[in-house]
Specification:
Two copies of one chain form a homodimer. Chain A has helices at residues 48-56, 69-77, and strands at 8-9, 11-17, 20-26, 29-33, 38-43, 58-62, 91-92, 101-102, 107-119, 122-134, 152-156, 159-162, 168-169. Chain A has 171 residues and is mainly beta. Chain A has one domain: Pnp Oxidase, Chain A. In chain A, β4 (29-33) and β5 form a beta hairpin. Chain A is globular. Chain A starts with 7 loop residues before the first strand and ends with a strand. β12 of chain A pairs antiparallel with β13 of chain B.
């Protein structure tokens, strides 16, 4: 019943290097610390991405927007890198690690794995974000502009929603 | 720059029991495993909630909707349980743990702490969800109905957004 915590933002995780690369969709991802900037992501050991991240100790978090929905669905539904041929995703070299980012994404966060721990039927990878690149129109002043992009969230397995443009400002 | 991962759903965390209780807002929260159902939440050791969860080894995740925005802002902005007097939140007894839930919430997930680990300047609490209650109109068929509730997400410190009602269905 983890759907009680949904809708939940979905992200892409790029893993691997050279010709052995993969992209998966992950909803179970969050910041863990701001100083240093650490993120945690839970990945099933059944995934090919799990193998690649375990081998290379690095991954990239790519932030998709509504324009990328078809490709998010393809990489989320299917296993293994063959699926990438069906997508329009373009790899771009990262600055500090060998795992590439995704050109079409609103942001790419380059992560080095600093801890790994099994919890239940998933494995929790902790990454230090050692570099990031982002679209400055979508993140002006280092904050997301919800009028400039519609960010994807899963509401159930095959259903996605996006944010409204309206902002509720407090304080 | 964790805001590159925003907007991010915000939840309420209830901690403590008897007259020593608190409620905080937390964005850094996610499922970790489905079998068993585990969740992870990152909390700063500066928070009173950190002390209460460390002492009692349990907490409740309460799922707020747009109607609760004023109270989410009050408990998120201020420290310590005195702030609760300013809110309209009502505690309700939980079924399996001593920490109460929140009546107005769309769902309450009762968690027992099974692991604690420091990552950077936050502490990661892993909870097993041993019981949950929820509003069946908002979660029919065990999935969120985004036409029935607007779920709150933080887009920056003092700005909140909600989901659109439109569903993008794939597959």
């Amino acid at each position: 019943m983890y759907y009680l915590l949904y809708p939940k933002r979905t992200y892409l995780i790029v893993s691997g290097k050279g010709n052995k690369r993969n992209v998966m969709a992950a909803d179970w991802l969050m910041p863990l610390s701001d100083k240093p900037f650490l993120v945690g992501v839970a990945i099933s050991p059944k995934n090919f991405s799990y193998q690649l991240i375990s081998e290379n100790k690095e991954f990239v978090i790519s932030v998709p927007t509504l324009e990328m929905l078809d490709d998010v669905w393809i990489v989320g539904r299917n296993h293994g890198p063959e699926k990438l041929k069906e997508t329009k995703l373009t790899f771009v070299p990262s600055v500090k690690i060998e795992t590439p980012g995704i050109k079409e994404a609103a942001a790419n966060l380059e992560c080095k794995v600093i801890d790994t721990k099994k919890y239940g039927n998933y494995t929790f990878f902790v990454g230090e974000v050692i570099h990031y690149t982002y679209n400055k129109e979508i993140f002006p002043n280092n904050r997301p502009d919800v009028k400039k992009a519609k960010f994807l969230a899963h509401s159930s397995w095959a259903e996605f929603v996006v944010n409204e443009e309206k902002i509720y400002r407090k304080g």
